[in-house]
Amino acid sequence: MKMKRQLWLILGIVFLNILFINISTPLAVEPPPQLIPLEELPPETPEITALREKIEAYIDEYSSRMIEISDYLYYNPEPGYYEYESSKYVAAELEKYGFEVQFGVEGLDEGYNSVIEKLHNARNLPTAFTAKYKGKSEYPVIAFTTEMDALRGDPPFHGCAHNQQPPVALGAAIAMTKIMDEYNLPGSIWVIHLPAEEIPPPDPTAMFKAGYFDEVDFILQTHGGVNSGKIKRPLAGTGGATLISANLYEFKGKTAHASGDPWNGRDAGDALRAMWMMVDMIREHSKPEFRFHGAIIETAKAPNVINPYVLFDHWVRATPGLNQEELNKKVEQVNIIAQAAAMGTFCEVEINHYADYVNGVSTAWANALGWYYTKMYSDEGMTLDELGDLASGWDVGQWASWSIPGLGSERGSITIAMADVPPTAGHSQEKADLTTTPLGHRSLALMAKRQAAVALRLITQPELLDKINEELKQWQEYGLAKGYITEDMLRHRGR
Length: 495
Prior knowledge:
By secondary structure, this protein is an alpha/beta fold. It folds into 2 domains: 38-238 and 359-489, Aminopeptidase, CATH 3.40.630; 243-357, Alpha-Beta Plaits (2-Layer Sandwich), CATH 3.30.70. The protein has 12 helices and 14 strands. It has helices spanning 2-24, 46-75, 84-96, 110-120, 165-183, 203-209, 268-282, 324-344, 364-377, 429-434, 438-460, 462-482; strands at residues 100-103, 129-134, 141-146, 188-193, 218-221, 231-235, 237-238, 243-252, 290-298, 309-318, 348-357, 361-362, 383-390, 406-407. A 6-stranded mixed β-sheet has the order 1-2-4-3-5-14. The longest helix is centred in the first third of the chain and has 30 residues, at 46-75. It is globular and about 85 Å long. The N and C termini lie far apart (65 Å).
């Protein structure tokens, strides 16, 4: 009897342990499929095909103007945050076609706003704009985003082919509005200029946090550029956990003559050196997936005075294997180090958190729709159905793609592929020059047709947008469970 009681006791303990584990351990959240067979897409009906062919005709009619816009931006390049003439030029073209244009972004986070004001005099992003055109009804809002900043240089130049983005967006958007008016279709078409893509901090994330995209239901972005080589079908999903937190540290001391009376000064440079030394010390006590990057933005101009001011830009990067919570804790450590360094050198420090970089997410339903038209508008034999890279989100992998679905053109999701394109290095003068050739000019209409075709399907077949949004919710659950994102990174828009 005693043996039986002991056996039952042991079995009871085992059962309770199993029950406790099942209750206390959350169930693993599986990601949705990364690929949707094209056969599962709702078919393009004859009526939609007829509308798409009309859109193609409108884009062909506008193609000479698209070439003019691309070449104008190529010959008049402006770097990020200084796209004043470029943005006015593109906005004026949209106004000719009935778009209502509004410049600037209100409600930006103060830390971010103060940084871009200090570095670029760009508070509230004065070159950003949204151009709106309303159809039969407001919903759905399909937005074509565009960038027009040139790479920094002397002089600046369009080595990333951003001169092609505005004409592609305009060609697609203008053609769509004509069809919507002619056939009384629902929805709104927006064109949104995202400034300074080539210069941190990431403006789309800051704009998203300010609610700038809250009314948008789908984003279409093409990076521009005549791409060489065949392209493979992109996979949906998120890139893992390559996360960055960017902070600006403003050390303030007191100047004095470095020889005559240095004892009357407090050296902000000493504070920075102390901070950097202590950051170097915590590398040993940080997981190997962490990276620490720093750059001195402003400092003393002369060696014979005590340095009263240093502006230091510092990033903490969490590579795959780490999550957002771990990154936040590490940034908190760095902030404490900065405060300690200031105290130890009798200086002051002001800390401004101005940017977060996270991997974006793409959906298999949106990718399937985009791939269908990528194959249609690419040159024969230039698309491969074998699987390619992960497409990481419409805005080159940032916060907004977790709440607003879309299609981008980075990381395996290039819009179209053309034959006989010579290879050129990214961010090179050769890449820029290629946009002014017959190949570059021909690519504009092809990219615009692909973008407009996707927009047309979303407006005429709303069940597609429903499927995309349902899948995005599954990716959100997966991202939250894995720690790739946190709840405060999402905006629930109530659509």
